Amino acid sequence: MLVPPIAVIITDPQKKIIWVNEDFTQITGYNLNEVLGKKPSILQGPKSEKVVIQRIKKGLEQLVPLKEEITNYRKNGETYLCKLVIYPIFNENQELIHFIAFEIDGDVIKDDSKIPLLNLNNKYQSSSLKGVDEIKLFTSVKHLMQQKKLYLNPDLTLKEVADQLGTNTKYLSQVVNHQTGYNFQYFLNIYRIEEVKAKITDEQYSNLTFFGIAFQCGFKNKSTFFKVFRDIVGVTPKEYVKQKSTHKN
């Protein structure tokens, strides 16, 4: 239940790419340097639906938010179903300064209803430059969690993360909530539970109790761990291990 990879593309008013996040690279295979100055249509190919391309083009011309599904191509030539939303970004004078797109791999994520960024009814309906700043900050938060695994620290605080990112706690909390729909603590616990899930099915940790493993993954309180695990996974740790064992057999 980790926050799924969501590619973010920011372009200038001429629709030329000026920034993409790491999830974009994960999904498409292209890094920022390879797409900088190019248009997102670099991801399209022979199987990309022409009718969808025309709808996207029309929406961009009309400067309205849009949501579509289209067959895109990765750098290696593979096709994938791209589910996307695009918003025009305006400054305080209501002048167009960017387009911002959020995209997921629809072959991997079948249901996007619980992903706030793929919902046209969210705050980007009235887009602003601040929204771009939020996306960049959220990208940095995810990087800290995924690369440095800060969530393993049971005493990690919102302030510590905010300080590392050079921001304040109020803004960081707001960004996490806007981008995931969760509060900061729940956001941390999602990563912790994923770590637990990986270890409780690994024979290397078979000598430890469930909470012994959970403690290594950032949980300090036993009852809190079991409650959070059930809330996020839907079953108890014991039931989860049993399910995994059954699937293996």
By DSSP (H or I, 4+ residues per run), the number of helices equals: 10
Q: Share of helix among residues?
A: 40-55%
Give the overall shape.
globular
CATH topology of the largest domain: the name is: Beta-Lactamase
Alpha-carbon distance between the two ends: 24 Å
What does this entry look like structurally?
- There is one protein chain.
- By secondary structure, the chain is of the alpha+beta class.
- The protein has two domains: 7-125, 2-Layer Sandwich (Beta-Lactamase), CATH 3.30.450.20; 143-248, Orthogonal Bundle (Arc Repressor Mutant, subunit A).
- It has ten helices and five strands, in the order ββαααβββααααααα.
- Helix 4 (129-148) packs across helix 6 (169-180) and helix 7 (184-200) packs across helix 8.
- The relative contact order is 0.10.
Descriptive key words:
alpha+beta, Arc Repressor Mutant, subunit A, 2 domains, five-stranded antiparallel beta sheet, 249 residues, Beta-Lactamase
Helices and strands, with pairings:
Layout: E1 7-11, E2 17-20, H1 22-28, H2 32-35, H3 50-62, E3 66-73, E4 79-90, E5 96-105, H4 129-148, H5 158-165, H6 169-180, H7 184-200, H8 210-216, H9 222-233, H10 237-248
Antiparallel strand pairs: 1-2, 1-5, 3-4, 4-5
